[in-house]
Amino acid sequence: MSASATPPGDDPIAAATHALKLKRLAGKTGEKPGRKKGRKTARMVRCEVRLTNSEFLDLSRLKKQLARKGVSASKEELIRAGLLLLVHLDRSELKSAIRDVIAPEPATQESE
To answer: CB-based contacts of 27: which residues, under 8 Å, 6+ apart?
Structure first.
């Protein structure tokens, strides 16, 4: 798929992936593809993240679901996408998300 080709179908995930690829090819988020003046490259740093087994399985399942829809994404890219989503949450939603990771609600079991 070329950088200027439009994504096939009306799939919003494929469209979002296409838009992100165009931005990445441009070198920074506000720049249009093909422009070379003042081009900055993102500096990558190495970071180790430890996940529980269930979180790792969720990540693998998500990757497979996207692959079935024609979107290939690495686990690293999925984690980075999740970070972008967290950045845009309002304060109360972010607190709730963090609370669920730090101290998740215990599962209720109906024994009777």
So the answer is: 39, 40, 41, 42
- Please give the angle made by the CA atoms of 31, 4 and 15, to the nearest 5 degrees: 85
Q: Which long-range contacts (CB under 8 A, 24 or more apart) does 80-89 make?
A: none
pLDDT, tens digit, for every residue of 13-49?
A: 777 777 777 777 776 545 455 555 566 788 888 888 8
Q: ∠27-34-74 over CA atoms, to 5°?
A: 45
Q: Other C-beta atoms within 10 Å of 92: how many?
A: 8
Closest Cα to residue 103, out of 92, 95, 91? 95
pTM for this prediction: 0.54
DSSP code string of 95-112: HHHHHHHHSPPPPP----
Provide the 8-state DSSP code for 55.
H
